[in-house]
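Weekly structure sync, notes
Attendees: PL (lead), two postdocs, one rotation student
Agenda item 3: pending single-chain targets
PL asked that the sequence for the first pending target be pasted directly into the notes so everyone works from the same version. It is reproduced below exactly as submitted, 808 residues in total.
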Amino acid sequence: MLRLHPAALLVALGLAASVVHATAFTPRMPLSLEEDESVATTDDARALVTNPAALGLRYPDEVYEGFARYDRQFEWNSTLLQHHGFGLLALRQRDTSQTYGFGFAAGSEKLRFGATPYELVSGQPKDYALDYRFGLLSRPTPWLSSGFTIDRAFQPIFRGERRARHYTLGVGWRPLALAPSLAHDWGTRLTFSGDVTVVDDGEWRQSRVRIAGDFEPVSGVHFRATVGDHRNVRAGLTLSGVNWHVHGGESREAGRVQYQTYAASIHTGEEPTALRMFAPSRVAVVHAGGTLADESMNGVSLTGGEATVAAKPIHRQLERALEDPLTRGVLLDLNGVGNMAQLEELRPRIKRLRLAGKPVVAYLENGGGRGDLYLAAACNRIVTTEEADFMALGLRSERRYWRGALARAGIRVDRSSTGAFKSAYRNFSTDSMPTADSVATQHELDVRQKLFVDAVSSDRGITPARLATYLDGREWDPAALAAGGVVDSIGYREDAMRILGRLAKLGERPRAVNLARTPPARREWTRPHRIAIVYAGGGIDVGRSGNDLLSGPTLGSATLIAELERAFHARDVRAVVLRIESPGGSALAANLIDHAVQRLKRETRKPLIVSMGSVAGSGGYYIACHADWIVADRNTRTASIGVLTIRPSFEGLYEKLGAHEVEFDRGDYMRGTSWSRDWGPREQATADSTIQRLYRGFVGKVADGRHLDLASVEASAQGRVWMGDDALARKLVDEIGGLDDAMREARLRGGIRLDERIRPLELGRPRPSFVERLLGGWVSDALARDAQLPDWSGAQMLDPDVLDPLVE
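Predicted structure, written out during the meeting:
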C-alpha cells in the first residue's frame, strides 16, 4: 500500500488539474528556473526560492545564476549562493522590483526545516516589504520525498496590495529506486514530482497543480519538463559536468510562449554522473599517519598514553577512489602509521583497488616502521627517499617490576587474581616475571612476527628469510632495502607520482586530488540505516565515558548502554554491530553492559555482531561473549578471561614519615579496605575468594554465550591472551576479518541485500556540545570525567596490554 502512495497522489493531482483547467486561478504559477522545480525534489541552490528546507542537501557550496526573458521589457535575473545549508538570494525583474534575502536549513536527511526571510523592493514607486518563506522536507526512503511550504507567511502589503499567503504541498517519486540495488545509481536518474499550491482563504478550484519530471538517460544529460493546469507546459535540457551545469528551456501556456530560461551553476560537490569529456581522469592522494583507531582520542594519562587518529576517513577515501570513475589510481602517503589490526583492515581495500585496475603507490618520505611497511607492501609500488629512516623494524616487549622500588619508598601493592596468565598490574606486586608471563609474551611475539613476515614477504615476492634479515632492529639504508626488494625505488614525491601516472596510464604528471576535500554530490534522497555500528573504545568503567589519569580514555557503562539502546530501538535498524577496542576494566561495568546486551537482543530480536579491533581482552571480551557472531582480526589480542583486584598500601611510607594512626572499626574485615594497612593472610584470602567467585561467573558467561562446556572454556581461560587465529581455533571467536566482514554478517542475519547501499547509524563517544562548553557547570563535569584516578576498590577485568607496551 505504501509503495502505491506516490503514484496514487500523482494521479489525483492530474485529475485535479483537469477539473480546474478552465477556472479562474489564484495564485500565479511561479517563475521557472529549470522547468522541474518542486517543493519535494529541488535540493540545489534553487531551494532558496522553492523550499528552503532542502537547502544544502545536494552540494556543499554552489553559485547559481539564472536568466528568464519574455521580451526586452520582461526579463528576470536570479543570483543564488549557498554554503552548507545557508544561502543568499537576489532576484531582479527589469525596471519593476527586486528581492533580496537569505535562507537556512537544519535537520536530518529524513526531516528538515528551513526558512527564507526576504525583502521586496520596488523602484516605481518606491516601496519595501519584508516577507518570509518556511518549508518542511521529509525523505523517509530512497524513492519517496515530500515537501510543504508556506510563502508570504505574514501577508505584507506591497505596491498597494496585500500579498495573500500561499501553501504548497508536493511529493516526489523515484520509481527505479524501489529496487535497492538501483537506488544509488539509476534510481536517481528518473524523478517525478507533483505540487499543489493553494491560497489562504481561497477555494480548491483556484488551486494550481503541476507535475514535473527529470530524466537522465545518458550521464550528464537531463531532460526536464513540467505539465500544469491551464495548458501550462515547460521543458528544458540540462548538461551537467562534475562541478558545473548549464540549462536552457522554454515555458508555454495555452500554446503561447511565456518566456525562455537559461541558467548556469558551479558547485563543490562532484556529480557521480557527468559529461566525461569535460572531466579529465586523475589520481587521489591519501595521507595516513599516527596510531589508527576507531575514534580519535587524546590518550593522555600518567603512564604516557598515546593519541589516536580515526581510521574511518582513510577507509572512506579508499572506498571513494574505488567507486569514482574519474579516479584511476591512488598515492598512499604514509608517515608513521601504526596499529596492526587497523592496518590489517585497510589492506583489503588496497587489494580491491588493484583488482579494479586502479594502481596504488606507497610513498614513504620519512621512511617508516613496521606499520608503514605492512600497509605499503599491499601496494603496487613502494617509493622512499634516499635519506629516509628505517630502523627498529623488529619487535620488543618491556616490562618493569616495581615491588622493590616501591618497598624502599614504603609503598606496597596488594593484589589478587585468578589464572596464571592474568598479569595486569602484577609488575607492581612482584620482583620478577613469572614463567607464565614469559611464555605468553614469547608466544605473542612469535605470532606477531609470523603474521608480519608472511604477509609482507608474500606481497613483496621475497623469501621470509630475506625479509627477516631487515627485522633485526638495526638502521637500514634505503638503498639496501631497495636491493633486497623490501621497497621498489629511491626517489621523491614527484617520482612516486610519475610511477603512479605510468601505471594508471595517465602520463608522467597525472592530475592529483585530495578526495577528503572533494566530496561527492548527494544524489540519493536518503540511504537507509539498516545496520547500527556502536563503537566501544577505552578502558571499561562505571558511569559516563571520559578519561582517567592512569589508563587514559575510559568507556563508561552508562554511555555505552545508552548507545546500545538507541541502536537496537532504531526502527529502521535490522542488525547491530558492536565494535570493541577495549582492554577491559571494571567487572561491574562489564556485567552491566553484558546484561544490557542480552536484554536488548531479547526485547528486539535483532542480531548483534561483534567486530574486534586491536584489543578486546578481559572485560572487552566479557561484553562480546553473548553476541550472535564474533569477528576478530589476526592481530587482535582477545580473551584474557580472568579477574583481578589491586589495592595500594602506604603503611610503610607512613612509618618512614613518622605518622601515627589510630583505628576504629565496626567490622572484622574493614582493615582490608584501608590504603594505610598491608593485607594480612585473612585479607588476602578474602580477596582471593571474591576474585574466584567472579572468575567462575566470567567463565560461566563465556560458556553460555559461546555454547561451550566449562572445561573447554577453562582450558582457554586462566587470563591467557590469544591472538585472532588462536582465539578462532579455541572457538572464542567465529571468524577472522575486520569491520567490513562483520557488516557482511550483519547484512546476512538482518535480511539485508548485499548490493543495497546503506548508511550505517554510527554511535560512538559523545562529545560535549558547544552550549555545554559555555555553561559553567560543564567545567566541573569535565573535571570529574577527565581528571579522575581509576577506582581500584572493585574487581577488574583488565588485559595486560594496558601496562605492558609492545614496541612494534
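Discussion points:
- Residues 1-5, 10-25, 768-793, 800-808 have pLDDT under 50 and may be disordered.
- The domain at 2-276 is CATH 2.40.160.40 (Porin).
Action: rotation student to compare against the earlier draft before next sync.
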